[in-house]
């Protein structure tokens, strides 16, 4: 299941507040805690405050939710049996996962700084005030890149469509998949500059508005992965929609 983070977790620059069938102004929040009473408390409290809440009792259940649902933010208990919250937080950060607010029974500075160092955006000690938690969630979501918030929800090009809210890519063959945040950033750059050669540094520069962990070395890997996905769901023949322009960089040329 952990590999699904590379495919579908959503640290979304690709649309804060994106959802599947909820109202577009309700962010998707995932609460991960092994204590059922805490999970239900979070769900009841945040649901009344205009959030859509999903629940998981550990890392494996969290991965299953992320594989199927675009999540805007994760509320994560730091101390759980098996894979603890600190390890999960570090894994999410390594895979460009959603932002994390850490919850812990420990409120001392050492625990708080440790959680923040591992990638949490914020840290709250238990017991917590649900109004404060809701406020901190909104603050974290406001800090995230919002380069595509004001864009049209769906971009269409020669039978393909890309949903900017969910990162859902659909092909002319009516197949679909959900792009990772980094893959979405690459494709979004190419869609804005289709049929125009782009140097590597231009792609990286434009990606930085959408994705804050873009490096020259990772670009080839991202493009290779995106090419495979485009072919998998319906690109015709062996032609790459993302073409290599030798001596320059890349060019996106949709099949007409």
From TrEMBL:
The keyword Transcription regulation applies. Residues 152-254 form the OmpR/PhoB-type domain. The keyword Transcription applies. CDD domains: REC_OmpR, trans_reg_C. Residues 152-254 bind DNA. Keywords: DNA-binding, Phosphoprotein, Transcription, Transcription regulation, Two-component regulatory system. GO terms for molecular function: phosphorelay response regulator activity; transcription cis-regulatory region binding. This is Response regulator. It comes from Asticcacaulis biprosthecium C19.
């Amino acid at each position: 299941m952990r590999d699904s983070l590379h495919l579908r977790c959503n640290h979304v620059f690709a649309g804060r507040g994106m959802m599947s069938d909820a109202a577009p102004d309700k962010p998707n929040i995932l609460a991960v805690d092994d204590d059922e009473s805490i999970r239900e408390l979070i769900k009841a409290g945040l649901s009344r405050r205009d959030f859509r809440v999903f629940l998981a009792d550990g890392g494996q259940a969290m991965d299953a939710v992320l594989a199927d649902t675009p999540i805007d933010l994760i509320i994560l208990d730091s101390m759980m049996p098996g894979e603890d919250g600190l390890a999960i937080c570090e894994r999410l950060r390594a895979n460009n996962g959603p932002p994390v607010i850490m919850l812990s029974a420990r409120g001392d500075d050492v625990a708080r700084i440790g959680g923040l160092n591992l990638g949490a955006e914020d840290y709250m000690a238990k017991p917590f005030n649900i109004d404060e938690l809701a406020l901190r969630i909104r603050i974290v979501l406001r800090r995230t890149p919002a380069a595509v918030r004001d864009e049209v929800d769906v971009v269409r090009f020669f039978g393909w469509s890309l949903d900017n809210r969910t990162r859902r890519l659909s092909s002319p063959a009516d197949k679909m998949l959900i792009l990772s945040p980094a893959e979405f950033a690459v494709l979004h750059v190419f869609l804005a500059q289709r049929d125009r050669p782009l140097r590597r540094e231009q792609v990286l520069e434009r990606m930085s508005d959408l994705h804050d962990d873009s490096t020259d070395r990772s670009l080839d890997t991202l493009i290779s992965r995106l090419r495979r996905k485009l072919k998998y769901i319906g690109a015709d023949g062996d032609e790459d929609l993302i073409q290599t322009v030798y001596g320059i960089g890349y060019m996106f040329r949709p099949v007409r």
